[in-house]
Amino acid sequence: MSTPTHPASPPVRLRGNRNFLLLWAGAGFTMLAARMSGIALPLLVIWRTGSAWSAGLVGFAALLPNLLVQLPAGALVDRWDRRRLMIYCDLGCLLATGSVAAAVLANRVWLPHLMLATFIQGSLAILYRLGERAGIRHLVPPEQLPAAITGNEARTQASGLLGQPLGSVLFTVGRWLPMVGAAVAHAVSLVCLLAIGSKLQEERDPAPRRLFWREVTAGLTWIWQRPFLRAVMGLVGVSNLLFQAVSLALIVIVHDSGGSPRVVGLITAAAGLGGVLGALSSAWWLRRLSLRAVLILALLAWALLIAGLANTHQPVLLGLDFAMISGIGGVSNTAGGVYQMRVTPDALQGRVNSVLGLIGSGCSSVGVLLGGLALQSLGSQPAVLGVAALMGVLALLGLALPAEAPVHSTQPAVTETRVAEDSSVQ
């Protein structure tokens, strides 16, 4: 007589997945700390010295890791234990932000110290983000991956919505408070990481590793060998460049119409809220549209919405426009994140994500310079209309995207040796 078989128990819902919730919350506190310190340091420099040049140096030190650290960070995330690496990152960020708070309290603020602290925090934040993103799929089943990425995108948008206003408010109470708040947030994140009971990577092949620079470039090579992903990243990179001009244009439009910085803050808050709502709605879109369709429709909608910015100075309309722009961004970011995580082998997750981050941040850095030049030379309305036209061209180019690579619900185990062979430059 055969023994009856019982169906496998359904996977735990995300809300009951303790390890995922700990990772989700810990990363949220880390992002909140970065937002708080990111607004507090320029305020500290300006209010203490009155020097925009000094504030620019601190801002440059904060952005420099995006260009210098991304690729090696991806290789380290794939080489080392991800959870342990993230714990070290939180410890380092806690010490960096705590040292700035102590310097402010002691009235011993030194510009090189601020630059070093923000560079260290930015570098460790990149390592943390890459480790968290690569480790998600080891905590949730494949069918829950879209919901997990949706929650992460909503959390990222919410941290931007809360972090900068909170940092500004704390700064008005005490100039040291935002840095203490950031240190506390890193401490909470550290506690969350220590409580996670699962590994965040597959077992690695103990075979000898390749030269480090070959590991660093493996993610770039892997993306280049996939026409669809390569083309998508080209479109995303250029659109990120254009959005920097849009962000600068908002400040110019509000200033030229007689508005105040508070108006800019309210509009950016509306954009953050739109991003959260867009991320939360992304599951509905992903069930109906492919990544290719999402990207084309997003580029087209952005072109129309950006063109609308050139014809209004009303704060309410600007807020609605930016909320819709960010909402579409929340959907497209989630769609791209789910696709990338499903098609990339685990042993390459950190390096592939580092390349994507480098493309996004690198284009954003260039976009700030070009956007400022266009706004200064042409004025806000012609510059914004030009950006809208270029975004429309990107939508047309999206129609020529090659076919998507097939996405599987599960990924077979891939050893480090096999990945090294598959990713080597021929």
Automatic annotation (TrEMBL):
<feature type="transmembrane region" description="Helical">
    <location>
        <begin position="316"/>
        <end position="335"/>
    </location>
</feature>
<dbReference type="Pfam" id="PF05977">
    <property type="entry name" value="MFS_3"/>
</dbReference>
<keyword id="KW-1003">Cell membrane</keyword>
<feature type="transmembrane region" description="Helical">
    <location>
        <begin position="355"/>
        <end position="375"/>
    </location>
</feature>
<dbReference type="InterPro" id="IPR036259">
    <property type="entry name" value="MFS_trans_sf"/>
</dbReference>
<keyword id="KW-0812">Transmembrane</keyword>
<feature type="transmembrane region" description="Helical">
    <location>
        <begin position="176"/>
        <end position="196"/>
    </location>
</feature>
<feature type="transmembrane region" description="Helical">
    <location>
        <begin position="381"/>
        <end position="401"/>
    </location>
</feature>
<feature type="transmembrane region" description="Helical">
    <location>
        <begin position="85"/>
        <end position="106"/>
    </location>
</feature>
<feature type="transmembrane region" description="Helical">
    <location>
        <begin position="53"/>
        <end position="73"/>
    </location>
</feature>
<keyword id="KW-0472">Membrane</keyword>
<protein>
    <submittedName>
        <fullName>MFS transporter</fullName>
    </submittedName>
</protein>
<feature type="transmembrane region" description="Helical">
    <location>
        <begin position="232"/>
        <end position="254"/>
    </location>
</feature>
<keyword id="KW-1133">Transmembrane helix</keyword>
<feature type="transmembrane region" description="Helical">
    <location>
        <begin position="21"/>
        <end position="47"/>
    </location>
</feature>
<dbReference type="InterPro" id="IPR020846">
    <property type="entry name" value="MFS_dom"/>
</dbReference>
<keyword id="KW-0813">Transport</keyword>
<feature type="transmembrane region" description="Helical">
    <location>
        <begin position="293"/>
        <end position="310"/>
    </location>
</feature>
<feature type="transmembrane region" description="Helical">
    <location>
        <begin position="266"/>
        <end position="286"/>
    </location>
</feature>
<dbReference type="InterPro" id="IPR010290">
    <property type="entry name" value="TM_effector"/>
</dbReference>
<feature type="domain" description="Major facilitator superfamily (MFS) profile">
    <location>
        <begin position="19"/>
        <end position="406"/>
    </location>
</feature>
